Amino acid sequence: MELETFTTETALDAATELQRVLAARTHRRKVMGQEVLVAGQLGEALQLPRIINRLQSKQQKQREQGLDDFQELWPTLSPRTRQKVLDAIGWYDPKELNWEDKRSNRRPVIDPDKGSV
């Protein structure tokens, strides 16, 4: 799978979804002798809130820094996590789509001997 190319808008969508995906992960922790399920906190550890704030900034320089930060983070994620995020935001690779899929936006190859259709 080739590296995805993000814009500030798509990076913001992906970062927001990544935060949701990571928060959905739970783990067990003992609190006062009771075992409880705790929401995942990996998003905070990866500084996703800061990246999202930068991507939402009104200053171009901040948005670019947020995009750079997100693009550094993205390859470090597991392929499964990346795929979950891409599926959730509706990202697809047009080259992998079936011919009948309207999103493929491909035109038939024209045979040069027969001219254009």
Nutshell version of this structure?
This protein is mainly alpha-helical and 117 residues long. It has 5 helices and 2 strands. A hairpin with a 2-residue loop joins strand 1 and strand 2.
Question: Which key phrases capture this entry?
Answer:
single chain; about 45% helix; 5 helices; flat; mainly alpha; about 120 residues; two-stranded antiparallel ribbon
Describe this structure in words.
It is a single chain. The protein has 117 residues and is mainly alpha-helical. It is built from 5 helices and 2 strands, in the order αββαααα. A two-stranded antiparallel ribbon has the order 1-2. Helix 1 packs across helix 5 (79-89). It is flat. The model has no long low-confidence stretch (mean pLDDT 81).
Question: What is the strand and helix layout of this fold?
Answer:
Layout: H1 8-24, E1 26-31, E2 34-39, H2 42-45, H3 48-55, H4 60-73, H5 79-89
Antiparallel strand pairs: 1-2
- Give unreliable regions as ranges: none
The helix content is 40-55%
Structural class: mainly alpha
What is the alpha-carbon Rg in Å? Answer: 20 Å
Number of helices: 5
Strand adjacency order, main sheet: 1-2
Query: How many DSSP-defined strands?
Result: 2
Instruction: Label the overall shape.
Output: flat
**Distance N terminus to C terminus?**
34 Å
Mean pLDDT over the residues: 81
The biggest beta sheet reads: 2 strands, antiparallel
Q: How large a portion of the residues is in β-strands, by DSSP E? A: 5-15%
Order of helices and strands, N to C? Answer: HEEHHHH
